[in-house]
Amino acid sequence: MWSTFVVQEEEVRSGNTSAGVHQPSGGLEGFLGSRGKGRKRRHRTQSGSGDGISESQEGKIKLTLFLAITGIMLTVLGVGTEFWVELAPSKSFYNNQTCLVAHYGLWKCCTKMIEVSDVDPKLEVCGPLHLQGESNCTFFKFYTTGENIVLFQKTPEKDLTVASAMFAIISLFLMVMGAICIIMAVSKGVQFFLKPAAVCFILSGVLIFLGLIVFHQSVLSFLASDQSIPLRHQMSWSVTCVGCAGALVVVAGALFLVLALPYSPWEKCFPKKNSDI
Predict the structure, then answer these.
(1) How many angstroms separate the Cα of 26 from the Cα of each of 21, 23, 31, 41, 93?
(2) Residues of the chain with pLDDT under 50
(3) Which of 172, 171, 203, 185 is nearest to 62 (CA)?
(4) Quick one: DSSP state of residue 100?
(5) Coil, strand or helix: which one is 185?
(6) Tell me: the pLDDT tens digits for 48-87?
(7) What distances in angstroms separate CA 74 from CA 106, 247, 251, 255, one per listed residue?
(8) How many CA atoms lie within 13 A of 65 on its CB side?
(9) Could you give the CA distance from residue 126 to residue 93 in angstroms, rounded to a whole number?
(10) Within a 10 A sphere around the Cβ of 132, how many other Cβ atoms?
């Protein structure tokens, strides 16, 4: 009888122990499961709401943001460099040993003295810029003191140059604001910020093209300021960077505007036809 009592007591203890171990585990699993279900429910509610962003839409937004960031980087590269226009006079501008070439942008002007022997004999003008020579660069002083520069006996139109620089700075500011709006839209999971971002990017692209037009007019005005020294001019790679950047941000803004619509334009234009099987 004593042995039977001991066996029963051990079974009761082992049962209570296993129950005591299992009960907290079950409670923790139930608690975590309820939290996971709550998260899934909230995620579905947010994705299914009219102002929410689904996972597929979030991927499209990130891809378009990469396109816009590429445009921002190209804009910074183009605005910060001075290879907007290249100027080249004839090889005999100074003497038969050396000749002078120049290039400038929104902020700075550079000149380079090149040996005539290094220039291709088939060319009638000095250059190109990649040839070895002594270079000298200086910033435009009309941003600070108002003093203009004289280059090849010509003076740049400072008002037009300042206007093109202001267009570039404002467009960069709008690009940054648009990128911030997209980051907030992705982090908050709402479509509200897509429309302001689209407006910022499209407007920044328009300002970039306006700045390029104004800068080109400033170059034409510079060339017409004195006709005594004929110059060959051509727009350089900085203008190409800025032009490509303007196209990229305009396309990115249009895509953000399409993603902000409550319906798919593709499905609206080309509705699916129900085929009878």
Answers:
(1) 9, 5, 8, 22, 92
(2) 1-9, 12, 15-49, 275-277
(3) 185
(4) E
(5) helix
(6) 445 677 777 888 899 999 999 999 999 999 999 999 999 9
(7) 15, 11, 15, 19
(8) 20
(9) 9
(10) 9
